[in-house]
Fold Enamine deaminase RidA.
Amino acid sequence: MTNFNNNIVKRYNPENIAKPVGNYSHVTKIDRNAEMYVFSGQIGIDRDQHIPPDMNQQVTHTMNNIVELLASQKLTPDNVIKINIWATEEIDWDHLYAIWDKVFGANPPSMTIAYVKGLGLPELKIELDVWAAG
């Protein structure tokens, strides 16, 4: 069993099940004294309220927005416990993981991915739900 941890969030990939098929942890455990943070879904909008038509640009903006949102609460990516990814078209995993690995490093949070017909605005191609503990 691999245990990645900080003082509040511990991550595990038990050896008795298949390894993750992506860059995520199977189990994320939160210290009982931690505060939970649940954020609204983050989208690929920039500070000027522009949503680019390109999926990779939306991914880049979304991940930047997540880092800034965490910082606004004095949290870091190490505090993220779970991310749900909702996408309306095929994800360029090389692009997403390049950013994902830069943000989360060797200890990524738990993750769920689903492809959906649509999101809250017609121009959105991706949205990420973020849960954190601090």
In short: DSSP finds two helices and seven strands in the chain.
